[in-house]
Write a structure and sequence with these properties.
The chain is an alpha+beta fold and 171 residues long. The chain is 29% helix and 34% strand. The protein contains 4 helices and 8 strands, in the order E-E-H-E-E-E-E-H-E-E-H-H. It has a 5-stranded antiparallel sheet. A 3-stranded antiparallel sheet has the order 2-1-3, with helices on one face. Strand 7 and strand 8 form a beta hairpin. The radius of gyration is 17 Å and the shape is globular.
Length: 171
């Protein structure tokens, strides 16, 4: 149903590990086997999933903070479309690809997604944005990513401090 091209991705993955690009369905069995093997070796979990390719997409992420009282906010967006081998090379905030309405919509969705899973901590909700302005959910990283410092510079919020406050049960 997804068609090709597509990407095989490790469910426990990160940093480009356990990922394989599949250009045709003939390549799929070998790509799944290779991604599973690499994911098992790197993360101790060989589970994978399939992801459709959105050509020319922008990679947009929203830093979120959620406390144990059910309060969840986002601290704006970052763009990380410039990548090499699935590794982000350049992050900037805010994204020049979003207009105000898109920024509001995606920020609201990031908070709604986090609320639905009762998220508590610092994290990131990621989306893909195509050339026509259509978006889709990519993933949620339930940890503080290395790129958090970009948001800190733009907002003045110390996300590490906030994560520790949240872990201590503070609102």
């Amino acid at each position: 149903e997804i068609g090709s091209p597509l990407r095989v991705k490790a469910t426990a993955g990160g940093g480009g590990k356990g990922m394989r690009l599949v250009r045709s369905t003939v390549e799929l069995p070998a790509a799944i086997a290779a991604a599973r093997y690499e994911a098992e070796a790197a993360f101790g979990d060989g589970s994978v999933y399939l992801e459709g390719i959105v050509r020319g997409a922008r990679h947009i992420e929203f830093q979120i903070l959620g406390d144990r009282q059910g309060n969840i906010i986002h601290l704006g967006d970052r763009e990380c479309s410039i990548q090499r081998r699935y590794q982000k090379l350049v992050e900037e905030a805010p994204s020049i690809a979003l207009d105000d309405a898109q920024r509001e919509t995606l920020g609201r969705l990031a908070v709604q997604i986090s609320t639905k899973v009762n998220y508590s901590s610092a994290g990131t909700v990621e989306f893909l944005l195509d050339a026509q302005g259509n978006y889709c959910f990519l993933e949620m990283n339930t940890r503080l990513q290395v790129e958090h410092c970009v948001t800190e510079v733009v907002t003045g919020v110390d996300t590490v401090k906030e994560q520790l406050r949240i872990a201590a049960g503070q609102p």
